[in-house]
Design goal:
Elements: E1 2-6, H1 16-24, E2 27-31, H2 41-48, E3 53-55, H3 57-61, H4 64-68, E4 74-78, H5 86-97, E5 102-105, H6 110-113, E6 128-130, H7 142-151, E7 156-160, H8 166-179, E8 186-191, E9 199-204, H9 205-208, E10 218-222, H10 228-235
Parallel strand pairs: 1-4, 1-5, 2-3, 2-4, 6-7
Antiparallel strand pairs: 7-10, 8-9, 8-10
């Protein structure tokens, strides 16, 4: 059987059911390529009482884990919610085609955590990602999603690429906004939601640049039109 298990937002977020499943699985993998973990691998091992093997993108996308589940119980641990990434949905599709039983153990994700900003979740538009730019490769199509959300007065959640520090992320965001003729005002930075390191910052773009010590994982929110209750709550973080 194949188990996709959401880890939630901190190392203590696993349910009793999830830990029991992990302990009886013959193989346990940790997907570690979609997020900068806010805790160490050892901290997670201490919580579940079992060692695991880290699985990179190549391992997961090769579907080897599904093949192994034909012969034994296999668990794939995923930070946050287990089906946020399309790669993980592909695992389920392959399991169905192969006649392999599977179970999803859900948990909280950043989509739950952002509610602590006071922004109403149903007022968010399409989610998009801020990729790390490379030399001669500066993709900025994510800004079209931001503009689309802004056109309907919706908030935008930007999921930041693994490894991208806040200084560079803000530089890229500012450059992309300028290229797309979009004016950025106040932003929300959410650091390590759901953990002891959690921090929510609400500042003008220029002030945000002063916060160079934001720890990973973090996300950026570009607010749309604010309800007076949203504005009141956000000001608590300013």
């Amino acid at each position: 059987m194949l188990y996709l298990i959401g880890l939630g937002l901190n190392e203590k977020s696993l349910s009793k059911e999830a830990i029991e499943i992990i302990k009886r699985c013959k193989k346990v993998y940790l997907e570690d390529y979609t997020v900068d973990f806010p805790y160490t691998h050892q901290a997670l091992i201490d919580e579940i009482g079992k060692k695991f093997v880290t699985a990179d993108r190549e391992k997961v996308e090769s579907l080897e884990i599904v093949d192994e589940a034909k012969k034994m119980d296999v668990a794939l641990l995923v930070y946050g919610s287990p089906l946020t990434a399309t790669t993980h949905i592909t695992l389920i599709e392959e399991a169905i085609l192969s006649g392999i039983k599977y179970r999803i153990i859900n948990n909280a994700s950043v989509l739950d955590g952002i509610a602590e900003t006071g922004l109403q979740v149903y007022k968010f538009g399409k989610i998009t990602s801020l990729p790390e730019w490379k030399k001669s490769y500066e993709p900025d199509s994510f800004m079209e999603i931001v503009k689309e959300n802004q056109s309907i007065k919706a908030h935008t959640l930007l999921l930041v690429d693994i490894g991208l520090d806040i200084k560079k992320a803000i530089e890229q965001l500012e450059k992309a906004a300028k290229k797309h003729n979009l004016k950025l005002f106040k932003l929300v930075i959410c650091q390590a939601l759901g953990t002891k390191k959690q921090k929510i910052i609400y500042k003008d773009l220029e002030k945000i640049k002063e916060f160079t010590n934001v720890q990973k994982p973090y996300c950026i929110i570009i607010p749309g039109e604010l309800h007076f209750m949203e504005k009141k709550m956000l000001e608590e973080f300013s």
